[in-house]
Amino acid sequence: MMSDPKNRLLACLGASALMVWAAAAAQSGDAEPPKDAADTPMATEMPLTDYLSAAISRGAPLYNNGMPEACAAVYATALEAAAYTGGWRMDREQRLALAYQLDLAAVVEDPSERAWAYRRMIDTLLSGEPMSMPPMADARVLYDFGDPDEARRWRVVVDGVMGGRSTGQIQQQDNTLVFEGATSLRNNGGFSSIRAPVPAGSAAGYDALRIRVMGDGRTWILGARGNSMRADSYWERFETTEGEWQTVTVPISGMVRQYFGTPIAGRLQPAAVSGVEFYIYDKQAGPFRLHIDRIEAVRLGS
Questions:
Q1: What is the pLDDT of residue 301?
Q2: What pairs with residue 289 in β-bridges?
Q3: Which CATH number goes with the domain that contains 272?
Q4: Which of 99, 127, 155 is where one domain is finished?
Q5: Distance in angstroms (rounded) separating the CA atoms of residues 169 and 237
Q6: Residue 31 above 70 pLDDT?
Q7: Residue 201 lies in a domain
Q8: Segment 183-203 mean pLDDT
Q9: Phi first, then psi: what are they for 119, rounded to 5°?
Q10: What pLDDT was estimated at residue 87?
Q11: Strand ordering across the sheet containing 256-259
């Protein structure tokens, strides 16, 4: 608890700046908070109850004035600060439980329902009651190719859908999924990919995707899809060394949203992950081969 009134005022200003930004961002689509909000002292110097009460005082009028999206953004900003910044007298288990609930709420499509999901979390924290969270391991296996049925869930998508000449095929070999073929730059082509679904909510409460692969020396892309019907996905490139097994961990929040290979604004929530993909799309022609042993959702640091 800080005693300097000036520092307390600056902390309050920082909290207010972030909440005002969140409300404006919900209306404008702005993805980055203003620098002045980021440069003020962290709101963690305020009591959590004061901070959450301030969020209600700003968010509730927005909701009552017909702006549930802006209200949800204000509530989410306050809750994310509690979950992901230091202080607040919250232990690790409390933070993990709050992060899990935030993840689930973030993918609620109806803005009114999403605002109320956040409000229920705030009310729980204000009451001092524990935040609920199912028992979770540090990692959850999404695909393990020791099971032959796992390979059958994958399908190949190549640039032929746009007139390209690249190829690709999959097979199960020595308890791994093998994806191989050749990329061609003819007819403006140059990519080959595989993709498969994962059960809805499989990655909820986790931070990253972890894969164990053996590549061919080329640059690959790990992709993830959200639960919308749009043609976008979220990518992260990774390098491989020919003939060497490697483990790659990709934070979900850092994956870049793509629309037909063009980066666009947007962030993927772990709870929204509904599919995983691998792309060879490095603007090179020639054969490729990738062995995939395991795909997991993990907590960072596990």
A1: 62
A2: 180
A3: 2.60.120.430
A4: 127
A5: 21
A6: no
A7: yes
A8: 93
A9: -65, -40
A10: 74
A11: 155-158, 192-197, 275-280, 219-225, 232-239, 256-259, 262-263
**Alpha-carbon span 281 to 261, nearest angstrom:** 9
Among 109, 105, 138, 152, residue whose Cα is nearest residue 124:
105
Q: Are 13 and 51 in contact (CB under 8 A)?
A: no
What domain range is 37 assigned to? Answer: 5-127
Could you report the per-residue pLDDT of 239-274, keeping only the tens digit for each?
999 999 999 999 999 999 998 878 999 889 899 999
Q: Residue 199 and residue 295: Cα distance in Å, rounded?
A: 13
pTM, two decimal places: 0.71
The C-alpha angle with vertex 77 and arms to 76 and 78, in degrees rounded to 5, equals 90
Q: How many beta carbons lie within 10 A of that of residue 159, not counting itself?
A: 23
Q: Are 158 and 192 a contacting pair, CB within 8 Å?
A: yes
Helices and strands counted in the chain (H then E): 7, 13
Whether residue 22 is predicted with pLDDT greater than 60 in this model: the reply is no
Residue 132 lies in a domain: no
Picking from 220, 213, 276, the residue whose alpha carbon sits closest to that of residue 247 is 213
Q: What is the mean pLDDT of the chain?
A: 85
- Contact between 238 and 222 under an 8 Å Cβ cutoff? The reply is yes
For residue 33, being part of any structural domain is answered with yes
Check whether 276 has a pLDDT greater than 80: yes
Structure tokens that stand for 284 in this block: 């090179």
DSSP state, residue 152: T
Check whether residue 147 and residue 270 sit in a common domain.
yes
State in Å, rounded, how far the first CA of the chain is from the last one: 32
- Distance, in Å, from the CA atom of 89 to the CA atom of 47, rounded to the nearest integer, reads 9
Q: How many structural domains compose the chain?
A: 2
Query: Picking from 20-29, 157-166, 291-300, which range would have the lowest pLDDT averaged per residue?
Result: 20-29
Indicate if 171 and 287 belong to the same structural domain.
yes
